[in-house]
Amino acid sequence: MESTSNLCLYKINRTTRVYWGLSPTIKKEIYRKVLEKIIIYGHEIWFKDQVEQNAKLSSLQRVGLLNITKCYRTVATEALQISGIPPITITLRYLQQLYRLKYLQQSIQINNQTFSFEDIEKRNKFEPLWDKTKFLRRHMQKNEDGCCIYTDGSKLRGRVGCALVCILDKVIKFSDQKRLSDGASVYMAELKAIEAAIMSANSHQYSSVKIISDSRSVLQALCNPNNCTAPISSIKALLNRL
Hints:
Elements: H1 2-18, H2 24-40, H3 43-46, H4 51-69, H5 88-102, E1 108-110, E2 113-115, E3 147-156, E4 159-168, E5 171-180, H6 186-204, E6 209-212, H7 216-223, H8 230-240
Parallel strand pairs: 3-6
Antiparallel strand pairs: 1-2, 3-4, 4-5
Helix pairs in contact: 1-2, 1-4, 2-4, 6-8
């Protein structure tokens, strides 16, 4: 690994030395896509998080960071983190924890909080093409007619929640709000709000319902036929059953 990374650095230095206008941002991208991948290759087997091993890994990373920051060789390794790249040992510890959780299905502990395999978001392996749901996105009008369900998700003071309100002929028919786990994201709150809106529309049996959301990321995820994550697939399944 050391000889391969040194050879890679030598070729990068030869290439970047010719083009004086090559910015540190481009060098940083080359480091992340090439050199870092070489260093961490097969980390599931060989990384033991030992002092001697970590020192060798830091020395390999140091050469790449010097090339990015153009600092003097006498600069301390810790000071090279101004490049915005974390120490390679921290990256490897993160990948090790992720490997244990995702592939070995073992529980891990981070900051006195335990995470299990059941806590992570899983991807549906297959979704038939005939089950694909088509979504139409458009800008909301000032005065929407018909039955409209407005959804929203937010995070305030470390607390996450979602809410919805149904308006028909300028009259509030029903509303609902839910509290999510503090570790949930606003994206997940927006998804839960849309899911609750679909279930509410189904239970009230309206002939036509407009579900309105201001989350572009959620709408793009719903429109993306290649997004097969569990929350998105759950919403599509609810719509197919309407």
